[in-house]
Specification:
139 residues; alpha+beta; elongated; Nuclear Transport Factor 2, Chain: A; single chain; 4-stranded antiparallel β-sheet
Length: 139
Amino acid sequence: MMHSLKAVVVSLLLVVLLAACANMDRRERLSDLQKALKDYAAALRWERYNDAYDFIRARDGSKPELNMEGFEDYRVTSVEIIRSDLNLEETEAMTHVVIKYYKDTSGTIREIKESQDWWYEAEAERWFLDGDLPYLDKG
């Protein structure tokens, strides 16, 4: 009787411990997403387009060609995260953002709205954007 009670207690402790670890992984992954979104936005605002490009990777590991033509004429003033929707496993996030920018020659603030498809790479333990750098009106 005593032996089976110990087994039950040990089993319950293991379940609680596993649940706590899973919750900690979840919080860490969400924190990593928030940091990735913040760092990507900062890279765009401070014209560190190569840093922003480092976040871009398709799920198959491929990357679009980096085309910097025209970016030197534009300045991003803000990247506002409107909403992030995560899947149940918290390995994918659809993030809706508003990017405000201007062209050096006009100074008129323009904005674009984007839906960004972020995904978590478990091996790299980081989030990537499945897409491309924003298309700023180059017209």
